[in-house]
Design a protein that fits this description.
Length: 474
């Protein structure tokens, strides 16, 4: 018996700057919404979002740039003023685009524009809004120096000094405390830990190609049926643990058990058995060195690599090439398969940036500079969870799992994820890439949720594993 993954998820499109601009042009040129009207609609929504997020702010200073991001800022100023806030706009750079010139002139006639040195003669603002540069900014920035800002800063669409596509810093500018982004989410939001709100200007009314990525904000895990047995839930083999790093195999086994596997067997050399004191009693143990030919095929899924060491590399490569059951490769298991071609069998890889660097032969900083592109490259080898603060699960489109949980950033957390993946693979028994990626998405989401439920920063990886049953509860 095998169980097909039936996860349901809520997702939001994530697109790069060129796609966002193309969507804007489509709304303007093809749908027929005039650009100033589109900007007016966005400004109204942004102003509402700012008021909702900062309800106590009564005095707002908007720092405006020369292009359409600045035009949005001038229009936002008018809507905030209509709502009763005291607002001043300072032209950090003079208006240049037609839309910015138009909305700046309106704001000027309403008395909302002031010089920086004269903006608040009676005292400082409660809130600043960064509307200097948006999706089109490039290095080097041409922004005059600003005095220190003594109140929270909200960025309009994209923080000035940040590349919308990669999150790379393009120049010096005060760091935003919050972002109100327009139309669609942008990749930078999942590189920098900045809280954000999204306002929709109608881009999702346009049908077309799927976005490069989507943010998965919530998910309903595959339910367990009342009639299931330990056999239908699957038998996970954990091919992991060396005498020096036996704890990694223990954590992976513990996670597989807590994630719902019917049976779990830890496969470690006999000289590591004395170091398995915290292994749950439900987990069976076998001597990896004494496995007979074909023994691994008795499992429904195999977890390969946590704390394995480099000794069994040739055995790991053989598993990658030949073992027909679903397998997840992590840690030393990933190092062993460097330079191998894709396997013909169901495989899932779970690298962090350093492991991805070895797999792809590219420096990790370069990979982290464009995490979406890196995840797409990893998919050429196998379905993958590219680990990080907001993990990316391969697929079409890519899935970014809402994360940013500091609790996850602890030693052994990756071993827990590997064991969790093993349990879900053993139950689902996926046969193709898409089915493996459905399992990977559920695993990545459950891992993040378990980290939150386990407790505050300072918990251990075993606490994350023990929180997995609660992570399944709505």
């Amino acid at each position: 018996m095998w169980v097909k993954a039936r996860t349901r998820s809520a997702s939001l499109p994530v697109s790069r700057a060129d796609v966002i601009r193309a969507l804007d042009r489509y709304l303007i040129d093809k749908v027929g919404i005039p650009s100033p009207v589109l900007m007016e609609h966005a400004a109204h929504l942004v102003a509402d979002a700012i008021r909702a997020r900062f309800p106590d702010a009564r005095r707002v200073m908007i720092l405006a740039g020369p292009g359409n991001n600045g035009g949005d800022g001038y229009a936002v100023a008018r809507h905030l003023a209509i709502a009763g806030l005291a607002v001043r706009v300072v032209a950090v750079l003079l208006p240049r685009s037609p839309e910015c010139v138009l909305h700046a002139a309106i704001a000027e006639r309403l008395g909302l524009v002031a010089r920086l040195e004269d903006a608040w003669e009676a005292g400082p603002p409660d809130l600043y809004v960064d509307a200097v540069y948006g999706t089109g900014q490039r290095a080097p920035l041409n922004v005059p120096p600003l005095p220190p800002l003594d109140a929270p800063l909200v960025a309009l669409d994209v923080p000035t000094g940040i590349d919308a596509d990669t999150g790379a810093r393009l120049g010096e500018f005060p760091r935003a405390d919050h972002v109100v982004t327009i139309g669609r989410l942008k990749p930078f939001l999942f590189v920098h830990p900045i809280p954000w709100d999204l306002v929709d200007i109608g881009a999702e009314l346009i049908s077309g190609e799927p976005p490069e990525a989507v943010l998965v904000d919530s998910l309903t895990p595959t339910p367990f049926a009342a009639g299931e047995t330990k056999w239908s839930r699957g038998h996970v083999g954990v091919y992991a643990g060396s005498p020096e790093m036996a704890g990694a195999g223990v954590l992976a086994s513990r996670a597989a058990l807590r994630a719902g596997a019917g049976l779990v067997t830890l496969l470690v050399p006999k000289d590591a058995w004395s170091r398995l004191g915290s292994l749950p009693p439900e987990v069976m143990v076998r001597d990896r060195a004494a496995l007979e030919h074909g023994a691994l095929e008795r499992y429904d899924a195999l977890v390969v690599g946590p704390g394995l060491g480099r000794g069994p590399d040739e055995d790991v490569r053989r598993i990658w090439r030949e073992l027909p059951i679903p397998c997840v490769f992590d840690a030393d298991g990933l190092t062993a398969i460097v330079s191998l071609p894709p396997s013909a069998h169901p495989r899932l890889i779970t690298p962090h940036a350093g492991e991805a660097a070895r797999l792809l032969g590219t420096p990790w900083r370069e990979l982290e500079a464009d995490r979406l592109r890196t995840a797409a490259r990893l998919r050429d080898l196998a379905p993958a969870i590219y680990k990080g603060a907001n993990p990316i699960v391969t697929g079409a489109p890519l899935r970014i799992v809402r994360g940013g949980n500091a609790q996850i950033a602890t030693g052994g957390s990756g071993d827990v994820l590997a064991g969790l993946c093993g349990a879900l693979l053993a139950r689902a028994r996926p046969r193709d890439r898409e089915a493996v990626e459905a399992v990977a998405l559920e695993a990545a989401w459950l891992h993040q949720r378990a980290g939150v439920l386990a407790g505050p920063v300072g918990i251990g990886a075993s606490d994350i594993a023990d929180a997995l049953p609660r992570a399944r509860t709505p």
